[in-house]
Amino acid sequence: MAYPAALEALVDAFERFPGIGRRTAERLAFHILRDPSSRGLSRAIEEAVTRAQRCGRCCNVAESDPCPLCADPDRDDSLLCVVEEPRHVEAMERSGAFKGRYHVLMGSYNPAEGSEPRHLTLEQLLRRVGEERPREVILATDPDQEGEATAQLVSEALRSGHPGASSESGPRITRLARGLPAGSAIEYLHRGVLEDALAGRRPV
Ligand SMILES: [Zn+2]
């Protein structure tokens, strides 16, 4: 049985989200119909879209473009740290362990849950690496299955964009040390652990 057109449109809208399949989209749409408090969602989306913008350089969300981190002249341009989510930038900054630049993928790669590389900011990353030529790209993805798949996807993309990366032509590509507790999310690590993981980073 088909849903009313307006409900169908809502389900369709949810289904376009990364990692959301048809059944989850239906659950979310019905939740909105059932729960009056979720009706503030449309205004929240409106405000977020109006106020927050994407930094043209690192793809993080900010209220300015370039964002304050990209605009900061005191950061080290030769180190580029690739993270999955904006909250990972926050975690790294809180730790104070990193003084380079960031690139935010805005998601992770999880083929099992239907996420696709096109949702990530990979193209922007490749263009940036080509233009800015950092000495090293640090893949700071979470130490879980999704983080592993994401790091692999990014390192392969960097290598195919830069044949012979790790030689003189392309950047050195490294990952955080495996000393990170398996499955732990980067945002919950305290400063010491993140510092160790950065210090012990290894080539991929
Ligand atoms: Zn930025």
Show the helix and strand layout.
Elements: H1 5-15, H2 22-34, H3 41-51, E1 53-54, E2 61-62, H4 68-71, E3 76-83, H5 86-95, E4 100-104, H6 122-132, E5 136-139, H7 145-161, E6 172-175, H8 191-199, E7 202-203
Parallel strand pairs: 3-4, 3-5, 5-6
Antiparallel strand pairs: 1-2, 6-7
Bound molecules: zinc ion (ZN).
Instruction: Please provide the ordered H/E string of secondary-structure elements.
Output: HHHEEHEHEHEHEHE
Which term fits the overall shape? globular
Residue share in β-strands: 5-15%
Question: Helix/strand/pairing class, anyone?
Answer: alpha/beta
Describe the protein.
By secondary structure, the protein is of the alpha/beta class. It folds into two domains: 47 residues, RecR Domain 1 (Helicase, Ruva Protein, domain 3, Orthogonal Bundle); 131 residues, Dna Topoisomerase Vi A Subunit, Chain: A, domain 2. Helix content is 42%, strand content 13%. The protein is built from eight helices and seven strands; from the N terminus they run αααββαβαβαβαβαβ. The chain has a five-stranded mixed sheet. The chain has a two-stranded antiparallel ribbon with strand order 1-2. Helix 1 packs across helix 2 and helix 6 crosses helix 7. 27% of the residues are buried. The protein binds zinc ion.
